[in-house]
Structure prediction request, 221 residues.
Amino acid sequence: MTKTALITGASRGLGLALARSLAADGWRLILTARGADTLGPVADELGALALPGDVADPAHRERLARAVQDRGGLDLLVNNASGLGAVPLPKLADYPLDALEELFRANVLAPLALVQAALPWLRERRGAIVNVSSDAAVEAYEGWGGYGATKAALEQLSNVLAVEEPSVAVWWVDPGEMNTAMLAAAIGAQEAAAAPAPETVVPTLRRLIDRRPASGRITRP
Prediction:
């Protein structure tokens, strides 16, 4: 049976790199990202379904759930889409609370809502969830308090979900620094260019997906 994956933030970076790897192995893909102009060509390249939109929007999440239902189920949910928050990165003493609230909606509530929507199919197929996290969830980096707090919350949600849903594999993955547009926005393009490419993380993700180890926190070796 052909396996189906839903990947958020799939138009670039790690989401795109993983989508290309899964497509090469015959996976059926549902891809979403906010930028229709960039997502469309990716879907055409991979023979995937493109549903552009913001995962923080409940109406868009409903469209994604309908797409999963139309395809008969789901084997893998990858919560890769993420916001950076206020830029330049502020200290917590100066963090605009409205921006932090918006960031929690994007980085915590939206992934959880997608998990809730997908769980019936994932339980049925003994599927898997990959929640992309960050070392900022566990380390104290100046300026990264807002973003790190959202990833810490996502990690604890994942931790509890793994206990509550034993038939579904749940991995929260810290990929380390990657040369992405988000990192460039945070620290500058020149500095971000020195980080490894997102493609270097894909082998770690594929080992999880293909070998299905126990649920838990994963860091790139």
